[in-house]
Amino acid sequence: MKIFRQWAFAAAFIGAATLAWTAEQKAQSSGWHTYGGDKAFTRYSPLDQINRDNVKNLQFVWSRGAVDPLLTNKFPDISAPDYFRGTPIMIDGVLYAPDGVGLVEAFDAVSGQTKWVQQPVEPTLKEAAGQSTRGVAYWRKNAEERIVSVRGEYLYAIDAKTGLPCRDFGENGRISLNRHTKDEALYFGWPGPFIVNDVIVIGGNGGGTIERVGDIGGVVSVENGRAI
């Protein structure tokens, strides 16, 4: 996967996705593969089990907190900011979403049960604390599946099956998005990444040169948003 940076990137994003849990089989076949529904950001699902006649019969099936207990039990002092903006994607019946502090969680779409929670690179409260982001991206090649996310100044690649960092991606599964020049411009942004034909597109502000980018085939170099 190569990485390109898109600097002029502005759009209105949905804060939550509505999924038809009662239509499990159809939902699994159609999925929700990007947090805008598709790469055109149409935010449209062809599912038709919910209509104007039966919408009044909807009931809560399950709910989740902004941060999973797997994280709050380890860091009792962690707290999520009030602004929660994450929209899940759904792949083969599994939801992947950034939580209230920007770490990725995977959970079953039907039961809401947790499959895994991304762990901070260092087991410290400082590393665990953060802000929510808008969404994550999904990438598959043969049997390998990755979830790609942006959190703080870093781009992460996570094994979609285990939640563990992809060790061949950058350093310990992440890449700094800061500008590696004398001015050291800091990256910041909350939009999720997009993946198009193995290219990761990132929106945000600040940052600049990415010196080395790990991918499934090894390492490529990217400078000022252009592969070299």
Number of helices: 3
Largest sheet, spatial ordering of strands: 2-3-4-5
Number of domains: 1
How far is the first residue's CA from the last residue's CA?
14 Å
CATH architecture: 8 Propeller
H/E series? EHHEEEEHEEEEEEEEEE
Structural class: mainly beta
Q: What's the CATH H-level homologous superfamily?
A: Quinoprotein alcohol dehydrogenase-like superfamily
Q: Tell me the total number of β-strands.
A: 15
Largest sheet: 4 strands, antiparallel
What oligomeric state is this? single chain
**What is the name of the CATH class?**
Mainly Beta
Mean pLDDT: 79
> Might you state the CATH topology name?
Methanol Dehydrogenase, Chain A
Unreliable stretches = 2-29, 209-228
Q: Per the principal axes of the C-alpha atoms, what is the gross shape? A: globular
Please give the share of residues in helix. under 10%
Radius of gyration: 18 Å
What is the strand content?
25-35%
